[in-house]
Amino acid sequence: MNVFIIGTGLIGGSMARDIRTHYPQAKIFGIDAQAHHLEQAKQQRIIDESANFSDLAMADLVIVSVPVDACLALLPEVLNAVSEQALVLDVGSTKCPICQAIENHPKRAQFLAAHPIAGTEFSGPMAAISGLFVGKTNIICEVEKTSFKLQEKALEIFQKLGMRIRYMSPKSHDKHIAYVSHLSHISSFMLGKTVIEKEKHERDIFDMAGSGFESTVRLAKSSPAMWTPIFKQNKKQVMRALDEYIANLSHFRNLMENEDYELVFQEMQQVNRIKEILNGINNPKTAS
To answer: For residue 226, which of 5, 6, 4, 9 has the smallest C-alpha distance?
Structure first.
């Protein structure tokens, strides 16, 4: 099996590592706009060889793992270049614009829109992790538009990588992911900004930063080059999520201003049930 990874960073590189483990006979090629990424990917044995778009004709599987703005332009080119037996899938964090970009392509049936909910705040080939996708949810959109034979091929790969599969429409995906992923990143970036600006005047503020602060701003270390296009493509849903989040922050501020600490306690107590929700998601067999 000839596997082409377009974008050899965290997600693409991690998928390549696991594919090598489960398909030891596979030959893995890398395509990346940054030459040093290809060198790092070869050094880390993420890929066997670097390649170009002209080589895609021999691909059995193509994984497009690039920023979502680049994906819009690349996907039609990739589908143009592959043979009629190849499976092409993307792993982007937005789905409506990507599905729309290739909805009328003659080889649409060879494309599968996917989004593995996995990753870290790090990027590049050196961030690739074996086993990253074990137990993680992988959202698949418009599966009915992919040929059944290639659906089976993709599901076999996802199963070997240990993913749980959920099916959604692109619109539902973009709506829900705005809350649980995109809003989380914005919150982290803006909390980091608030503290950095304060630190200009109080130099010892980071000396007092504990694990709570560190875990909350972890996502602020994520790549702006990756996240700005995501926010742009999912602007409508992100704006809705921001409006609701800002309203909740304003409400909490009003409770503080009015010294209504009983309601402050009640607000936090009600949200505490998120522990049960997340425990059920992460341990579905133990959920009631």
So the answer is: 9
How far apart CA 195 and CA 131 sit, in angstroms, is 34
Ranges of H-type helices in the chain:
10-22, 35-43, 68-81, 96-101, 148-160, 170-177, 183-199, 211-216, 224-233, 235-257, 261-271, 274-282
86-105: per-residue pLDDT in tens? 999 999 999 999 999 999 99
Q: What is the pLDDT of residues 112-163, one digit of tens each?
A: 999 999 877 778 899 999 999 999 999 999 999 999 999 999 999 999 999 9
Q: Residue for token digits 């304003």?
A: 250
Both tokens of 268, joined, read: 């936090």
234 C-beta neighbours (distance < 10 Å), count: 24
Residue 282 has pLDDT above 70, yes or no: no
Pick from 145, 29, 39: which is nearest to 95 by CA? Answer: 145
Q: Which residue has the higher pLDDT, 249 or 211?
A: 249
β pairing state of 87-90 and 27-31: unpaired
Q: Within a 10 A sphere around the Cβ of 68, how many other Cβ atoms?
A: 23
Q: Which of 234, 161, 225, 185 is nearest to 12 (CA)?
A: 161
**Which is nearest to 155 in space by CA: 258, 146, 234?**
146
